[in-house]
Amino acid sequence: MDRTRRTLVVFLALSFGHVLLLSVQVQSRSGLPWLQAATFGVFARVQQVTDDLSNMGRSFWSNYVALHGVVAENEALQMKVLDLEGQVQAQAAIASQARELERLLDLQQSVAAPTLSARVIAGDPMPGTMVVTINRGSADGVETNMAVIGHAGVVGRVINRPTAHAAQVQLLIGHNAGAGAITATSEAVGPVHGGAGTPPLALDYVDLLRDVQVGEQVWTSGSDGIFPRGFLIGTIERVVRGSGSGTYSEIAIRPAVDFANLQFVLVILAKPVGVGGGA
Amino acid sequence: MKVLLTVAVALVLQMALARFAIGGRWVFDLVLVGVVYAALRWGPVAGMWTGTIGGLLQDALGAGVVGIGGLAKTVVGVAAGVAGAQFMVARPLGGAEMVAAATVAHRLMVLGLFAVVDQDWFGVPWTAMLIEAALNATAGLVALHVTDRLPGAVRETRARRRPSLSRRNW
């Protein structure tokens, strides 16, 4: 058999193997958990090392090279801290009033779930998959389907099986991502899904009769069993009534989180309720 | 060995750099650049294996169906290798053009396969695809240029260096 024919045979065999692999997953739609876990297990360590190296470079740059204008920046930050301290005190006052009201009304006090801070150590392995890697894993208590938030709002959820010191997070703006949501004023309830274009989030199944307004905030409803109620998803940017099927409004949402600048996140260490494992 | 090394370097670079471009307009696929690089440097067989291994690893590290990227990159790797041999793509600029063409072909193939598997068509994001083609081509140009120049630069540096005491002619 000559070289060209042998190459052709190997190429056809590989292509057939890929098609077979795809057809196995079409029914389950869950990928290949064992292959994904093994690959991630190997690459998580490499990502940790590259992240450490990149941080060393960045730290050298910011600590020794880029110190111009640091005095002015320091003054601006001090002013900002002062402003934020005032805001924190105001919030604390409101919270104490709320606690007092809860006590008076004999309500069960709302318990905030414990959170764990994590650093993003790697981005999309393939363009468009919207998956990042964080430096916390099963040894830190991270489990599949746990919710991940940022300082501005919802980031996504943990997918696949985490390794001891790393986990993969599917971002809310990804094609297959979603969350139960509720609008702040009109109280329209529905699922938010990612990959909707520009802006990347969309709220589905909201009745045409609901008076949903542009600029309204959208929060997690807690109905999905992954994201606890009350975390900010984003702001409504566009409402189109009467298009498509004609039964529901088309609602586009601008995410609260700046996904292009994602460095630190918080994992909510509450076990998901009634959600199956896997991706 | 060189195939595995190309895949490993491309994948680590992709994941290290992509964290600064999540959800933004700057889309790039350095593994695809690695596939075309291998195909142009070492022929269609190397392109095919780089595509298969690189694509499957990318799929496994992502959240989706395993095999879509693998199949698309395998086809692109072979096609780039064959085209590279046919058209004698020797200069880095020609290689960069090949990377851009491969990016468009790869993206269309991935979209088509997703449509078949997911039974859902998202449309062709032309702007994102063209940005990806431009960025990939730039990365390919840099990689081909650097690897073209590197052996010569090393030789020149060695020649310029003073001979050591043991080899000096007194």
Helix-strand blueprint:
The complex is a heterodimer of chains A (279) and B (170).
Chain A: H1 3-28, H2 33-65, H3 70-104, E1 115-122, E2 131-134, E3 147-149, E4 154-159, E5 167-171, E6 178-183, E7 189-193, E8 201-207, E9 217-220, E10 232-240, E11 248-255, E12 264-268
Chain B: H1 2-18, H2 30-42, H3 44-61, H4 68-86, H5 92-118, H6 126-160
Describe the structure.
The complex is a heterodimer of chains A (279) and B (170). In chain A, a hairpin with a 4-residue loop joins strand 3 (147-149) and strand 4. Chain A contains 3 helices and 12 strands; from the N terminus they run αααββββββββββββ. Chain A has 279 residues and is an alpha+beta fold. Chain A folds into 2 domains: 33-110; 115-268, Beta Barrel (Thrombin, subunit H). Chain A has a 6-stranded antiparallel barrel with strand order 1-2-5-4-3-12. A 6-stranded antiparallel beta barrel of chain A has the order 6-7-8-11-10-9. Chain B is mostly helical. Chain B has a single domain, classed as Arp2/3 complex 21 kDa subunit ARPC3 (Orthogonal Bundle), CATH 1.10.1760. In chain B, helix 2 packs parallel to helix 4 (68-86). Chains A and B meet through helix 1, helix 2, strand 1, strand 2 and strand 5 of A and helix 1, helix 3 and helix 4 of B.
The gyration radius over C-alpha positions of chain A equals 23 Å
How many β-strands of chain A, per DSSP?
Answer: 12
Number of strands of chain B: 0
Shape type of chain A: globular
Global mean pLDDT of chain B: 85
Shape annotation of chain B: elongated
CATH class of the largest domain in chain A: Mainly Beta
Task: Output the CATH homologous superfamily of the largest domain in chain A.
Answer: Rod shape-determining protein MreC, domain 1
Assembly annotation: heterodimer
Strand content range of chain B: under 5%
Largest interface (CB < 8 Å): A-B, 54 and 44 residues
Strand percentage of chain A? 25-35%
Q: What's the domain count of chain B?
A: 1
**Average predicted local confidence, pLDDT of chain A:** 82
Q: CATH fold name of chain B, please?
A: Arp2/3 complex 21 kDa subunit ARPC3
What is the SS-derived class of chain A? alpha+beta
The stretches of 5 or more residues of chain A where confidence is low (pLDDT under 50) are none
The helix content of chain A is 25-40%
